[in-house]
Protein backbone atom coordinates (compact mmCIF):
# COMPACT_ATOMS: atom_id res chain seq x y z
CA UNK A 1 0.00 0.00 0.00
CA UNK A 2 1.02 3.57 -0.54
CA UNK A 3 1.23 6.29 2.08
CA UNK A 4 -2.09 7.66 0.81
CA UNK A 5 -3.70 4.23 1.19
CA UNK A 6 -2.35 3.99 4.74
CA UNK A 7 -3.74 7.43 5.58
CA UNK A 8 -7.14 6.57 4.11
CA UNK A 9 -7.20 3.32 6.07
CA UNK A 10 -6.41 5.26 9.25
CA UNK A 11 -9.14 7.81 8.53
CA UNK A 12 -11.60 5.01 7.72
CA UNK A 13 -10.84 3.10 10.91
CA UNK A 14 -11.54 6.24 12.98
CA UNK A 15 -14.56 7.40 10.99
CA UNK A 16 -17.69 8.02 13.00
CA UNK A 17 -20.53 6.92 10.74
CA UNK A 18 -23.88 8.59 11.48
CA UNK A 19 -26.69 6.31 12.59
CA UNK A 20 -28.63 4.94 9.63
CA UNK A 21 -25.61 4.97 7.32
CA UNK A 22 -22.88 2.52 6.45
CA UNK A 23 -19.37 3.18 5.19
CA UNK A 24 -16.96 1.07 3.14
CA UNK A 25 -13.38 1.55 2.03
CA UNK A 26 -13.25 0.62 -1.68
CA UNK A 27 -9.89 0.90 -3.43
CA UNK A 28 -8.74 3.71 -1.16
CA UNK A 29 -12.00 5.65 -1.38
CA UNK A 30 -14.47 6.02 1.50
CA UNK A 31 -18.01 5.37 0.29
CA UNK A 32 -20.98 6.20 2.52
CA UNK A 33 -24.54 5.16 1.83
CA UNK A 34 -27.90 5.31 3.53
CA UNK A 35 -29.18 2.19 5.23
CA UNK A 36 -31.09 -0.28 3.08
CA UNK A 37 -34.84 -0.40 2.57
CA UNK A 38 -37.21 -3.17 3.63
CA UNK A 39 -37.12 -5.12 0.33
CA UNK A 40 -33.32 -5.28 0.58
CA UNK A 41 -33.39 -6.50 4.18
CA UNK A 42 -36.05 -9.13 3.47
CA UNK A 43 -33.90 -10.57 0.66
CA UNK A 44 -30.86 -10.79 2.94
CA UNK A 45 -32.99 -12.38 5.68
CA UNK A 46 -34.31 -15.00 3.24
CA UNK A 47 -30.78 -15.92 2.14
CA UNK A 48 -29.52 -16.14 5.75
CA UNK A 49 -32.44 -18.41 6.68
CA UNK A 50 -31.54 -20.85 3.88
CA UNK A 51 -27.82 -21.25 4.65
CA UNK A 52 -27.29 -23.90 7.34
CA UNK A 53 -25.98 -22.36 10.54
CA UNK A 54 -24.46 -25.67 11.62
CA UNK A 55 -21.73 -25.39 8.97
CA UNK A 56 -21.59 -21.67 8.12
CA UNK A 57 -21.29 -18.29 9.81
CA UNK A 58 -23.77 -15.97 8.01
CA UNK A 59 -22.54 -12.49 8.84
CA UNK A 60 -24.16 -9.16 8.13
CA UNK A 61 -22.33 -5.87 8.72
CA UNK A 62 -18.98 -7.71 8.51
CA UNK A 63 -15.98 -5.93 7.02
CA UNK A 64 -13.69 -7.99 4.78
CA UNK A 65 -9.96 -7.25 4.42
CA UNK A 66 -8.37 -6.77 0.99
CA UNK A 67 -5.11 -5.10 2.08
CA UNK A 68 -3.46 -5.13 -1.36
CA UNK A 69 -6.36 -3.05 -2.71
CA UNK A 70 -6.77 -0.68 0.25
CA UNK A 71 -10.31 -2.04 0.49
CA UNK A 72 -12.54 -3.00 3.38
CA UNK A 73 -15.97 -3.60 1.86
CA UNK A 74 -18.95 -4.52 3.99
CA UNK A 75 -21.00 -6.89 1.83
CA UNK A 76 -24.67 -7.34 2.62
CA UNK A 77 -23.84 -10.92 3.61
CA UNK A 78 -20.53 -12.70 4.24
CA UNK A 79 -20.53 -16.48 4.54
CA UNK A 80 -17.54 -18.27 6.05
CA UNK A 81 -17.16 -21.88 7.05
CA UNK A 82 -17.13 -22.45 10.79
CA UNK A 83 -13.51 -22.66 11.90
CA UNK A 84 -12.14 -20.88 8.81
CA UNK A 85 -11.56 -17.60 10.64
CA UNK A 86 -11.71 -17.68 14.40
CA UNK A 87 -9.66 -14.53 15.00
CA UNK A 88 -11.27 -11.64 16.76
CA UNK A 89 -11.36 -8.19 15.26
CA UNK A 90 -13.23 -6.02 12.83
CA UNK A 91 -11.91 -7.62 9.63
CA UNK A 92 -12.28 -11.10 8.16
CA UNK A 93 -9.47 -11.88 5.70
CA UNK A 94 -10.73 -12.38 2.13
CA UNK A 95 -9.19 -15.89 1.85
CA UNK A 96 -11.46 -17.09 4.69
CA UNK A 97 -14.64 -16.03 2.84
CA UNK A 98 -16.63 -18.60 0.84
CA UNK A 99 -19.53 -16.42 -0.37
CA UNK A 100 -20.32 -12.72 -0.52
CA UNK A 101 -23.76 -11.37 -1.35
CA UNK A 102 -24.49 -7.85 -2.52
CA UNK A 103 -28.08 -6.66 -2.92
CA UNK A 104 -28.06 -3.90 -5.51
CA UNK A 105 -29.51 -0.51 -4.65
CA UNK A 106 -30.14 2.38 -7.01
CA UNK A 107 -26.89 4.02 -5.88
CA UNK A 108 -24.70 0.88 -5.85
CA UNK A 109 -25.24 -0.57 -9.34
CA UNK A 110 -21.80 0.25 -10.77
CA UNK A 111 -20.02 -0.62 -7.52
CA UNK A 112 -21.75 -4.01 -7.17
CA UNK A 113 -21.59 -5.06 -10.82
CA UNK A 114 -18.12 -3.80 -11.65
CA UNK A 115 -15.88 -2.53 -8.85
CA UNK A 116 -16.75 -5.20 -6.28
CA UNK A 117 -16.86 -7.91 -8.94
CA UNK A 118 -13.22 -7.14 -9.80
CA UNK A 119 -12.27 -6.75 -6.13
CA UNK A 120 -13.82 -10.05 -5.03
CA UNK A 121 -12.35 -11.92 -8.03
CA UNK A 122 -8.90 -10.51 -7.35
CA UNK A 123 -9.27 -11.50 -3.69
CA UNK A 124 -10.19 -15.05 -4.80
CA UNK A 125 -13.60 -15.08 -3.09
CA UNK A 126 -15.00 -18.34 -4.55
CA UNK A 127 -18.64 -17.25 -4.91
CA UNK A 128 -20.11 -13.78 -5.46
CA UNK A 129 -23.89 -13.49 -5.64
CA UNK A 130 -25.37 -10.23 -6.90
CA UNK A 131 -29.07 -9.93 -6.10
CA UNK A 132 -30.65 -7.18 -8.19
CA UNK A 133 -34.13 -6.02 -7.09
CA UNK A 134 -34.05 -3.36 -9.81
CA UNK A 135 -33.94 -5.96 -12.63
CA UNK A 136 -35.42 -8.86 -10.64
CA UNK A 137 -32.43 -11.16 -11.21
CA UNK A 138 -29.65 -12.95 -9.38
CA UNK A 139 -26.18 -13.07 -10.94
CA UNK A 140 -24.07 -15.95 -9.62
CA UNK A 141 -20.33 -15.56 -10.20
CA UNK A 142 -17.89 -18.40 -9.53
CA UNK A 143 -14.34 -19.43 -10.44
CA UNK A 144 -12.44 -16.21 -9.70
CA UNK A 145 -9.46 -15.45 -11.92
CA UNK A 146 -6.86 -12.73 -11.46
CA UNK A 147 -6.02 -12.63 -15.17
CA UNK A 148 -8.75 -12.73 -17.79
CA UNK A 149 -8.88 -11.77 -21.47
CA UNK A 150 -9.70 -8.18 -20.45
CA UNK A 151 -6.63 -8.07 -18.22
CA UNK A 152 -8.81 -7.34 -15.19
CA UNK A 153 -9.68 -9.79 -12.43
CA UNK A 154 -13.06 -11.42 -13.02
CA UNK A 155 -15.10 -14.54 -12.56
CA UNK A 156 -14.91 -17.23 -15.25
CA UNK A 157 -18.44 -18.54 -14.67
CA UNK A 158 -21.57 -16.35 -14.66
CA UNK A 159 -25.16 -17.52 -14.35
CA UNK A 160 -28.17 -15.18 -14.34
CA UNK A 161 -31.56 -16.30 -13.04
CA UNK A 162 -34.84 -14.45 -12.59
CA UNK A 163 -36.42 -13.97 -9.19
CA UNK A 164 -38.57 -17.03 -8.50
CA UNK A 165 -36.09 -19.44 -10.12
CA UNK A 166 -33.72 -21.53 -7.97
CA UNK A 167 -30.05 -20.55 -7.70
CA UNK A 168 -27.66 -23.46 -7.03
CA UNK A 169 -25.04 -22.45 -4.48
CA UNK A 170 -23.01 -25.65 -4.75
CA UNK A 171 -20.12 -24.33 -2.68
CA UNK A 172 -22.38 -23.91 0.38
CA UNK A 173 -24.47 -26.99 -0.41
CA UNK A 174 -27.86 -25.42 -1.05
CA UNK A 175 -30.22 -24.45 -3.83
CA UNK A 176 -31.34 -20.92 -3.02
CA UNK A 177 -35.10 -20.41 -3.21
CA UNK A 178 -35.73 -16.90 -4.57
CA UNK A 179 -39.56 -17.10 -4.59
CA UNK A 180 -39.78 -14.48 -1.80
CA UNK A 181 -37.44 -12.00 -3.48
CA UNK A 182 -39.22 -8.80 -4.57
CA UNK A 183 -38.26 -5.95 -6.87
CA UNK A 184 -38.09 -2.41 -5.55
CA UNK A 185 -41.31 -0.45 -5.84
From TrEMBL:
Keywords: Endonuclease, Hydrolase, Nuclease. SUPFAM superfamilies: Restriction endonuclease-like. GO terms for molecular function: endonuclease activity. This is Uma2 family endonuclease. PANTHER family: SLL1072 PROTEIN, SLR1083 PROTEIN. Residues 12-144 form the Putative restriction endonuclease domain. Pfam families: Uma2 (PF05685). Coiled coil: none annotated. It comes from the Bacteria.
